TrEMBL record:
Residues 1-60 form the SHSP domain. This is Alpha-crystallin A chain. It is found in: Cytoplasm; Nucleus. Pfam families: HSP20.
Length: 75
């Protein structure tokens, strides 16, 4: 959608199937200033896969540029 001030607004929806061994209550998502979407999905520590459900994940906007993604490993 183009506005009078020359700004452009776009929206999309994408659905992903995640593995069952993730803690779905702790999933986080961020969007960098240059459009890099990062999804963090910690694994379940107990081996319990009963928390599987469909749910939206809120996206946090970040003012930093994301061309250098940070990779975090579970301890």
């Amino acid at each position: 959608m183009r506005e009078d001030q020359g700004r452009v607004s776009r929206e999309f929806c994408r659905i992903y199937r995640l593995p069952g061994n993730l803690d779905q209550t702790a999933i986080s998502c961020s969007l960098s200033a240059d459009g890099l979407l990062t999804l963090c999905c910690p694994k379940v520590r107990t081996g319990d896969d009963s928390n599987q459900q469909d749910r939206p994940i809120p996206v946090t906007r970040d003012e930093k540029f994301g061309n250098q993604p940070e990779i975090k490993a579970d301890p």
